[in-house]
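Note to self: keep these together.
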Amino acid sequence: MMKEMLNLLRNHGYKSVSLSVQKANYAAKMYQKLGFKIVNENKDEWIMICHL
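Structure:
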């Protein structure tokens, strides 16, 4: 589903997308596999960005 969302955003002209994810969330690894990079963090979460 996330791949479809990224493709939809790309097709609508978006250049990047960001999200925040709790460090303990197992989905963080999935986001990294999809191309998201950690750009900032605090005690509990990462801010991630994916360039489309």
